[in-house]
Amino acid sequence: MEQPVDGPPPLDHLSLLDRSTANFAELLAQASGEEPVPSCPGWTVRDLAVHLGMVHRWAAGVVLTVRMADRPEPIIGDSLAAWYSGTAEALAAALRAVDPAEYAPNFARTDETAAFWRRRQLHETVVHTVDLRRALGLGDGTIDAGLASDGVDELITAFFRRLAGKGTPPVVTENILIRAVDTGDAWVLGPGEPPELLAGDAPAAATIGGSAVDLYLGLWGRVPHDRLAVHGEGAASLLAGPTSI
Questions:
Q1: Read out DSSP for 211-226?
Q2: Same structural domain for residues 23 and 128?
Q3: What are the tens digits of pLDDT across the range 30-73?
Q4: What CATH code is carried by the domain that includes residue 87?
Q5: Is the dihedral of CA 63, 113, 153, 146 positive or negative?
Q6: Is there a domain that residue 153 lies in?
């Protein structure tokens, strides 16, 4: 990601994760668990919370055991919100117990440090909080532009690699410039499986532009792509194909 010369300091992913998981837990306490989740067809709020909680447990295990283990079926008591809060607390404790520079494997096979998991769990929580808010009829809420831009970068540099590893790589047929018009951050993708991240000044035949939040939620499939400025066949092909799981 290419940033302005005098851009903001790096995000404190762990502190933001603390706030995000606390917010999710507070919202979850307002739910019955049976509400459908519009942005995750076929899921209820309970399904959403169990998914996120198990992802937290899995990530904590990866950081502490330094191996990618399977996720067992959870046993959940009477309070789904209390169960989720416990998984979030366990994740926070695991991430604080390990120096961010320590080795920890990940599915992207890049930046295999504990710091990767701080960032990954933050964005997992932010996106699913949008899902939960929608299920409760509360709208998307407010996402900071800097956080959203960081999320776009995380998706491009990590999740695109995961998609390629699962045999469903993003479709990049020509160089594509992706630009957040409000933050000035930009990425240029070139063909490859996964797509190659090129220098920010590399020539591009197609472009995708929009606010950092619209790019973030658009690439995660949470907002329609007509909120983005899309130019060129390559850009349209990328958005029509898989960009997230």
A1: -HHHHHHHHTTSS-GG
A2: yes
A3: 999 999 999 999 999 999 999 999 999 999 999 999 998 887 78
A4: 1.20.120.450
A5: positive
A6: no
Beta bridge partners of 188: 177, 198
Q: What is the pLDDT of residues 216-226, one digit of tens each?
A: 999 999 999 99
**Which range, of 44-53, 71-80, 123-132, 229-238, averages the lowest pLDDT?**
71-80
Q: Are residues 189 and 113 in the same domain?
A: no
43-49 CB contacts, 8 Å cutoff, 24+ apart: 45/132, 45/135, 45/136, 46/80, 48/128, 48/131, 48/132, 48/135, 49/24, 49/80, 49/81, 49/83, 49/84, 49/132
27 and 101 inside one domain:
yes
Task: Find residue 207's DSSP bridge partners.
Answer: 177, 231
Q: Are residues 50 and 113 in the same domain?
A: yes
Residue whose C-alpha is closest to residue 84's, from 3, 14, 23, 148: 23
Which of 4 and 190 is assigned the larger pLDDT? Answer: 190
Instruction: Name the domain count of the chain.
Output: 2
What pTM value is reported for the model?
0.94
